[in-house]
Design brief:
Layout: E1 2-8, E2 13-22, E3 25-35, H1 41-59, E4 63-67, H2 75-94, E5 99-102, H3 104-111, H4 119-129, H5 138-161, E6 166-167, E7 170-171
Helix pairs in contact: 1-2, 3-5, 4-5
Length: 172
């Protein structure tokens, strides 16, 4: 069993989802949304960094998966998203957790079966796949989907490489 953290970064809400994964089975551990507060960009990035650091220390995930930046129509939004991603990646890297990146299409393909699935479809499938009592919030569902995408990708890599385990938090 391996514990994985999925992160859906955002400058207003950052979703997180932690699952335990073994083979083709995944179990929900915890998930939620970090409400990014603060008056300045530095204060907001500090909130993301601190809260994700606390989550990593409390739940001890072995690996972390995060969504790759995609180009927004608005350059300012893309920059803010990139900065939120940077704070999230730094929080995990400072705790020596390897970070894996996936595109939104890879995540949707892995969980819903369609690379251009709607957010509601992702929420619904996450509820089903993780046997949740209710549909998670959008950012929370995205983070859980990222964690599941990594679990599926990771298992495929292990099988292809004939790997039997992990060592020091890395595929061996």
């Amino acid at each position: 069993m391996i514990r994985l953290l999925g992160i859906d970064p955002g400058s207003i809400n950052t979703g997180f989802g932690i699952i335990d994964s073994e083979g083709n089975h995944a179990k929900h551990v915890t998930s939620g949304v970090i409400k990014v507060t603060g008056d300045t960009l530095a204060e907001k990035l500090k909130v993301i960094y601190q809260q994700l650091t606390d989550l990593v220390l409390e739940y001890n995930p072995v690996e972390v998966a995060i969504e790759k930046v995609f180009m927004h129509k608005n350059a300012d939004s893309a920059l803010k998203l990139g900065q939120a991603r940077g704070a999230a990646i730094a929080a995990c890297a400072m705790q020596e957790r390897p970070v894996f990146e996936y595109t939104a299409n890879q995540v949707k393909q892995s969980t819903v079966g369609k690379g251009h699935a709607a957010k509601q479809q992702v929420q619904h499938m996450i509820k089903i796949l993780l046997c949740l009592s209710e549909e998670p919030k959008t950012d929370e569902a995205d983070a859980l989907a990222i964690a599941l995408c990594h679990a599926h990708s990771r298992e495929g890599l292990l099988r292809m490489q004939g790997v039997t385990g992990i060592r020091f938090g890395r595929l061996q």
